[in-house]
Amino acid sequence: MNIKPILENIVSDNVLHAKWLNTLSYMENAGAKKISASEHKEKVNLIILKHAAEEHRHAYYLKKQLDKLDGDLCKTYTSDELLAPNDTKFYLNALDVAVCRYLKQHFNLSGYELKFAAYLFVTYAIEVRADELYPVYQDVLTAAGSKVTVKSIILEEEGHLEEMLNQLRSFDADWEKHAELVIKIEQDMFNSWMQNLNKQIA
C-alpha cells in the first residue's frame, strides 16, 4: 500500500498533522506498556528494559514534536485527538491476540512462555513496520520543509529490529517461517488502519 500520498495530505494540514503525531505517540506508548506487561516477575533482561524505555521515550518525543506545529493541539489521547481512533486503540491488542493464538497452536505454549514468545514476534512485526513507516514519513517532512523530524526514532528502531532478530534466532531455528506469517497478519491490519484513516481525512 502506498502511504506517501496519505502522509503528504496529513503533513499539509496542521490539525491533521498534530493528530497524526499524537496517534504515533499513542502507539509507541501502547507498545511500551505491552512490553512491560510481557515481563517475567523476576527474569527481566537488559534488552527488554532498554526496549520499553526507548518506546516510552519515543511516545514522549513525538508528543514534544507537537510544539513545532501551530496551535495548542492534542494534549491527551482521547479519540477526538487521534486519527482512526478505534483502529489505533485496538491495533496492538488485536495483533497480540492473533499472534498468541498462532503461537499456542504451533508451539503449545502457555503462561509466561506464551507472553514472551508473543512479545518477540509482535515486536518484530512492529519494528519491521516502523522501519518502513518512519523513513517515508521523514521523506514527506523533509520535502514539506517541516520543523518536525523523526530521524532519531529511525536510528533507534533499526537497532531494535536487530535486537529482535537476535532474540528470534535464539527462540527457534524456524523462526523466519513463523515471522512471515506474523508479518502477514500485521500487514493486513496496517492496510485496514490506513484505509480507515484515509477515509477520515479525505
Report on this structure.
The chain is mainly alpha-helical and 202 residues long. The chain is 78% helix and 0% strand. The protein has seven helices and no strands. Helix 1 (4-11) crosses helix 5, helix 2 runs antiparallel to helix 3 and helix 3 packs antiparallel against helix 6. The chain is globular. The model has no long low-confidence stretch (mean pLDDT 91). This is Rubrerythrin. It comes from Pedobacter panaciterrae.
Write a concise synopsis of the structure shown.
This is Rubrerythrin. The protein is an all-alpha fold.
Largest sheet: none
| Number of H/I helices | 7
- The helical percent reads over 70%
Report the span from N to C terminus. Answer: 17 Å
| Gyration radius over CA | 17 Å
- Computed structural class: mainly alpha
Give the CA-based shape.
globular
| Percentage of β-strand residues | under 5%
Low-confidence stretches: none
**Counted beta strands:** 0
User: What string, H for helix and E for strand, traces the elements in order?
Assistant: HHHHHHH
Give the helix/strand layout.
Blueprint: H1 4-11, H2 14-37, H3 46-65, H4 85-107, H5 111-144, H6 151-171, H7 175-201
Helix pairs in contact: 1-5, 2-3, 2-4, 3-6, 4-5, 4-7, 5-6, 5-7
What are the salient characteristics of this protein?
single chain; 202 residues; mainly alpha; 7 helices
